[in-house]
Amino acid sequence: MIFLAFLLTSFVNAQILKSFTTSSLLESSLRSDEVVWLNPAGPLSASIGVTGAAGPLGSLGPFGDNFWNASTALRMVGSWEEFAQVMSVYNGPLSEYGPVFLTTELGDAMMRFSSLGTQHLAPGGVLHALGNSGPLGPLGVAGFLGPNGAHGYRRDKIGNYVSEQNKVVKSLKLETHEGRRVFDLYEFYQLKGLNLAQVLDTSFALRGELKSDDEIVVQIKSTKKQWVNLLLVNEFSLDTFALSVTDHHKKISSNSRVLTNFINVFVESGTLLELRVKLNTSYHFLPTKPFRLFVTGSEKARSLSDRSFHK
Predict the structure, then answer these.
(1) pLDDT tens for each residue of 51-62
(2) DSSP labels for the chain?
(3) What is the CATH number of the domain that holds 205?
(4) Whole-model pTM over 0.85
């Protein structure tokens, strides 16, 4: 009983340890090189940036269910999980010599060359959302676990991965240089048809639409002590969205109207988070405002030591 009480207390008290957001960065004292990256026409621009409406994470990129998205073509192919397993035997993408290497501590350390400016891409850097620990990294939507990845599972209408035995698959067990590890697959969900009452993991993208006064609430739970990157992308350049996250202790929000809103949190194992998405501004008269929410957890990534985090 004492052990159960301790375990329950640990999960209840699990919380956000560190955090920083688009808004908090813009309000803080930035170095000159950081100011360059956070300018309105930079890589985090909500319209023309890498994380913007016209970038690879937007509706024009390879991820989604439009006829021009690569994910649609792969869905038409169906399941090819057996071929994916064969490739792994011959040091393919799911082997320890593939992108999975970048998720290890050694792979993470090799990405840090401060003289080249790559420190900005690490957790704690202003470009965390674009780095190894974001949706464009190996554990994100663009990686081997995503809808265009090398796992070979087909997707259903909602976005779940389904095996040849018609069972929903949520994770993969893969060999790494640090031993055998379990990786959560990166789903690309459609809000329509998704049960928002369920608690999701920290490895998925969600595409949805809002009306002017709507608000979407999503619950996620981290089963590891890790960094979690929350990135909110508008599909129309004339829209911007606000993002907030709460645990049992605090609320963190980001509502920039120029840059893509993100929230990066370092959480304890068992932390339950509630995400809220709402419309910030809109300059068109279409009834719905489409958005994409990317949630990417990264267990092995180490944060920078020179960033003043919000407690």
Answers:
(1) 999 999 999 999
(2) -HHHHHHHHHHHH--EEEEEEHHHHHHS---HHHHHHTSTTSTTBTTTSTTSTTSTTSTTSS-SSSTTSHHHHHHHH---HHHHHHHHHTT-TTSTTSGGGGGSHHHHHHT--GGGTGGGGSTTSTTGGGSTTSTTSTTSTTSTTSTTSTT--EE-SSS-EE-TTS-EE-EEEEEETTEEEEEE--EEEESTT--TTSEE-SEEEEEEEE-TT-EEEEEEE-SSSEEEEEEEEESSTTEEEEEEEE-SS-EEEE--SSBPEEEEEEE-TT-EEEEEEEEEEE-S--S-EEEEEEEEEESS----SS---B-
(3) 2.60.120.380
(4) yes
